[in-house]
Specification:
The protein is mainly beta. It has one helix at 231-236, and strands spanning 13-15, 22-24, 43-49, 63-70, 76-81, 85-90, 95-99, 121-123, 129-134, 138-143, 148-152, 154-156, 159-162, 169-174, 181-186, 190-195, 200-204, 239-240, 251-257, 260-265, 271-275, 290-295, 304-309, 313-318, 323-327, 343-348, 357-362, 366-371, 376-380, 395-400, 410-416, 420-426. Strands 4-3-32-31 form a four-stranded antiparallel sheet, with no helix packed on it. Strands 5-6-7-8 form a four-stranded antiparallel sheet, with no helix packed on it. It is globular, with a radius of gyration of 22 Å. The relative contact order is 0.13.
């Protein structure tokens, strides 16, 4: 018998079954990502603070306590409310922005025309856009060909970080050119990218653990990286999250909270989380920040359709349209009643238990849900009219939002920013040219 050692076969290889030759195992591919549906177009309604133009209603409208109609000549299929700006996606795959442009979050030059940041303007991009996202001072656009362009800046506890080590980017910048991206998600100051191979890349501020690839000691821009590594570049250039290779994990969905990230494993309910957890908003025991991906047993109990996370609370809907809340109770943001306690585990919102919820969003300390019937519910802080109830009172349970502009319209998308809220609604009067500025009153 020969004692010659046989060559070990590479773990990623198999034989073709005919010639016996080694064939590399096909790499995992995501064919369809869970992007927001762009099949339905509607009109935009806005409420809340408009002091820097984030309502898009012009420089004279600084606040609204009820939803007002925004007059546009475009059919809009998606909206994102950033910290102090708003991003819209048109049916043709174009991006419109309005609001604060101090850090370049609008992706267009506004200094050449007075008050141009107060009204919607188009961002020049080299292709059709499939998805948009927005943070406190940045905006991102995923093109249909898998490229991602971003503009604006990230911030940390020391102030402006820049979008790249060179500083802010006032115009669209391709941020991750070596990968095909199928979904993006924005936190306040970080961006999450899901590649076609089920890998997750992150960049931005890491101070609360939201990048999932630094130690707590190495999370700041002034940390010592060693070996001559540029620490700021380490944070700002997209890089893969830290996972044990032995886990062999692939992901099929991502969500970003203000200071957190959620990632769903392919073919399973397993959800890995990282970031701020001081009110258990990640579904982890204890309240320490999580700097590397960790399986959340609580979030892994359900099959989620959408997870939205703000600074100190998280709202989620499962595939049955049931709505859950976890985190801090103040101002009523959980929707669990005025006398509730902080929710340390995911708790179903009983006021919505008979509703089939299709869309949700979180503002800083507010929450929203859209039902299958097109109803809009809001709860939490209402200080500057961001709930759209016509009052500035907080609501401790989901409250049906009624107004003249919502009459005979069915809401299907909601997004809440720092102190303003934007919805998309459909009606029989959504055709271009039928809207006029008088309806914004």
């Amino acid at each position: 018998m020969s004692t010659k050692a046989t060559k070990r076969r590479h773990a990623g290889a198999t034989t073709d079954g005919v010639s016996g030759k080694l064939v590399k195992r096909a790499k995992f591919i995501i064919e369809h990502a869970a992007l927001p549906s762009l099949a339905k177009s509607g009109v935009i309604l806005v409420t809340g603070a408009g002091d820097v133009g984030q309502l898009g209603l012009g420089s004279e409208v600084l606040e609204k306590s009820r939803f007002a109609l925004l007059s546009l000549d475009h059919e809009i299929v998606d909206v994102c409310a950033g910290g102090m700006h708003t991003v819209c996606l048109t049916k043709e795959g174009k991006v419109l922005t309005f609001g604060c442009n101090d850090e370049g979050a609008l992706g267009r030059i506004t200094s050449d025309k007075e008050d141009s940041e107060f009204t919607p303007g188009e961002v020049e991009l080299p292709g059709e856009v499939a998805q948009i996202s927005a943070g406190d001072s940045h905006t991102a656009a995923l093109l249909k060909d898998g490229r991602v362009f971003v503009w604006g800046t990230f911030r940390d506890s020391h102030g402006n970080m820049g979008l790249t080590p060179k500083g802010n980017e006032k115009l669209p910048y391709e941020i991750i050119p070596d990968h095909v991206i199928v979904k993006i998600a924005s936190g306040a100051d970080h961006i999450v990218f899901l590649t076609t191979h089920g890998e997750i890349y992150t960049c931005g501020c890491a101070e609360q653990g939201q990048l999932g690839r630094t130690t707590e000691r190495g999370s700041g821009r002034n940390a010592r990286s060693g070996a001559g590594i540029d620490q700021l570049g380490k944070l700002l250039y997209p890089a893969p999250i830290s996972l044990k290779p032995s886990l062999k994990l692939h992901f099929e969905d991502i969500w970003a909270g203000t200071y957190a990230t959620f990632a769903k494993v392919v073919g399973k309910n397993s959800v890995y989380v990282f970031g701020l957890n001081n009110y258990n908003q990640l579904g982890l025991k204890g309240t320490a920040p999580q700097f590397s991906p960790k399986l959340s047993q609580d979030f892994s109990k359900h099959k989620w359709k959408l997870i939205c996370s703000a600074q100190h609370h998280t709202i989620a809907i499962n595939e049955d349209g049931k709505t859950y809340a976890i985190g801090r109770k103040e101002y009523g943001r959980l929707g669990l009643g005025e006398n509730c306690e902080d929710a340390t585990i995911l708790t179903e919102i009983s006021a919505l238990k008979d509703k089939n919820v299709i869309n949700i969003s979180c503002g800083s300390a507010s929450s929203f849900a859209v039902t299958e019937e097109g109803e809009l519910y809001g709860w939490g802080m209402g200080t500057v009219g961001q709930l759209g109830t016509g009052e500035d009172e907080d609501r401790f349970e989901p409250t049906l939002i009624k107004s003249k502009q919502l009459t005979d319209r069915q809401v299907f998308r909601v997004s809440s920013g720092g102190q303003h809220t934007v919805v998309l609604a459909s009606s029989n009067n959504n055709n271009k040219g039928v809207l006029n500025s008088m309806e914004t009153t």
